[in-house]
Amino acid sequence: MKDASPQTIYLSDYTPPAYLVEDVHLTFRLAPTATRVIARINFRPNPEAKSRAFFLHGEGLKLIWATVDGQIVQPGIDEDGLTAEVPDAPFTWEAEVEIDPAGNTRLEGLYLSNGMYCTQCEAEGFRRITYYPDRPDVMAPFTVRIEGEEPVLLSNGNPTDHGPGWAEWTDPWPKPSYLFALVAGDLVAREDSFTTRNEREVALKLWVRPGDEHKTEWAMESLKASMKWDEEVYGREYDLDIFQIVAVSDFNMGAMENKGLNIFNTSAVLASPDTSTDANFARIEGIVAHEYFHNWTGNRITCRDWFQLSLKEGLTVFRDQSFSADLRSAAVQRIEDVMALRGRQFREDNGPLAHQVQPDSFVEINNFYTATIYEKGAEVIRMLHTLVGPDDYRKALDLYFDRHDGEAATIDDWLNVFEDATGRDLGQFKRWYKQAGTPRLSVEEQWEDGTYTLTFTQDTPPTPGQDEKAPLVIPIVTGLLGPNGDEVVPSQVLEMTEKTQSFTFAGLGAKPVPSILRGFSAPVILTREASPEERAFLLANDTDPFNRWEAGRMLAKEVLTAMVTGKEPPLDAYLGALATMLRDDSLEPAFRALALHLPGEDDMAQTLHDAGITPDPARIHDARETLLQEVAEHLQDSLPRLSAEMVIEAPFAPDAEQAGKRALALALLRLTTRLDGGKAAAKVYAEADNMTLSLGALGCLLDAEAGEAALADFEARWAGDALVMDKWFMMQVSHAAPEKAADVAARLAEHPAFNMKNPNRFRSVFGALAMHPAGFHHASGAGYALMADWIIRLDPLNPQIAARMSGAFETIGRYDADRQGMMREALERIAASEGLSRDTGEMVGRILR
Ligand code: ARG
Ligand code: ZN
Q1: Which of 122, 168, 291, 842 is catalytic?
Q2: What is the predicted ipTM?
Q3: pTM tops 0.90
Q4: Is 231 known to be catalytic?
Q5: Which one-letter DSSP state was computed for residue 539?
Q6: Which atom of ligand 1 is nearest to the CA of 125?
Q7: Nearest CA among 6, 143, 21 for reference residue 80
Q8: Given 7, 233, 354, 644, which residue has the most CB atoms within 10 angstroms?
Q9: Strands 201-208 and 242-248
């Protein structure tokens, strides 16, 4: 059903561009409040177009003059762009515009961050730089001349010329405007080089503000590892003489894959042992890889329109996840990826913001850079990989690069490639792109005369605008274990296509224990009744590490659910299994740390809601606290020995092995803190020589309400480091007692170092509040009210971040009438605020509908 709003954009309305661009020449005369941009663009009619109407996007531009083939023209201008009379033949468009980078707080287009010029053009920021057909199916080579006083002047492609006060860059690869980038400022580079498999030398430069040089080594190593991996695993080689990364402190997202000139949020690229946690190092490695991998999946082959966003994002996330799995522990990586998927995508997919991996419509494209487009998109590709197998997957990818290099492609093109390369019909599989919502998969077993039968039923609940759901193709990787724990039927892919479908295993000597959905082979919610003993058995014996972890997780959820609903929890089974697992030295420490981690409060709220129970955030919080205390007491005698085993003598390294030991050490420290009130944590804090342990110990101290001295010490030590201070802000909110969380956030927002214009800082306070369920959903309503106040304040400055933050309310449907009423009131207050952005307006409207 079509929305009445005139601004809604529909996939079905796609039409090819009227004019194509031959080449683009841009000249920038930089000045903080009055930068001039002179464009010379050669257009030609598109033979495939249905109309000859000439329209260029443009927003917030002051047009100085424009010509067509050298003749001054007076275009018709409105708030979206301009129209002009042009020949039905090739012609040259020239225009000069003025823009105000210093006044640009949206951080889209050209803006000043910390004294340096930088750009963010995806999705539709280029139209804030000059008039242009700002759509990804218009691709062109760019030449850029930058004039400015700044010592470093950068753009895409290769450097072709420079002189005092100017530099010229040429990007020979046709690209859409969203991949344009410009950077100018006082920057220093870490330099390195990479030799491609065809012996081409590529210069590598990582640009940072003077003073940050010591934080560049890790990203550079990650970059070289990514370049090598893409050659080895996907056969993809880099294609320019230079690859550059710039670190920027004000940035809406993690990073951006601009051709040859990636721009990164400082938080996604800068790292040093004393300022960054192991999680920061891992995230940086993944994001550097992600942006680099976009050079082929995104840049060389781009998207025809924004409805195809997952074509590049889902694929590139799948690629960066595979890369991290290869470099680190594949099992641990998979568990972490699934935790993130469930925490963000399942949450989205089960609320009012649920949407398809390929949506049919949107109002503001920035609102669709979501966990569904990214993480579910990656899961869909992972399922394809599972269904066709690694060899056919590689064959299909080779064909994809061959067939579509240099093009703006669609998700249909992608699926056609798989059909052509493998001979498979993917008609039904395509539903994964077109059907929103998380499928529920239930299973029943039957055992008779040595034959074991698993009968699966799938069911996807309705989502906004999609009441009816058809059955999906679900690859269910399954193995069977014998009573002694041996694997009697090894892993195989059960390919489910029907609503209800059975699979049989004959010739078994005894009734097996099934291990279903190994490696989380499909993004579904599996429900299977099992006794606590059987879950404990799987936690002890499953050969699939993911399902081993999952068994413990299920058991923990059952314990918590029973505690919340006043039933008898299967505590002994859980604590016994946990203790056995923890003492098993054959399990890597990182795995044991994850298995020790209780399901989070938001996860429990969703789990209860799915079971038909209205979650009470306060009770969930208390149950979790009680269970953690039980765990600590049960493991009391093992804690000192295990903790001692996790001490690292070697010098700090941010590798997966050391990180795993530190993760387990901190998990144990959190338990110890419950028994000693913070004595051990104070010692760890005082002696820590790296941020992982400092911050972990600080968290323990805050939980024990013994963190004041450490907090003050931390602030004094790190006041000059914005990324570390983000952690200082965040920790205080995320470790606040539920009844204090909103107050703490409100007080921190008054701190002199709080700056709402910096997205990292804003998120460190209000993102942390949103992710503190017992605090945000406190019965007083203070969390909701405060969040609404700040979204309203931020919206005029940075609509993208304000819109994103309003996702805090997406779980409204789970809660009781009182909470729903207060959330609705907060949302209505946002909706009614004067001049609300399209971004936030769309989000709040979808949540309220
Ligand atoms: N393409 C970038 C990435 O995935 C993200 C760009 C986000 N842009 C936006 N407007 N939300 O690496
Ligand atoms: Zn991406």
Answers
A1: 291
A2: 0.98
A3: yes
A4: no
A5: H
A6: 10
A7: 6
A8: 354
A9: parallel
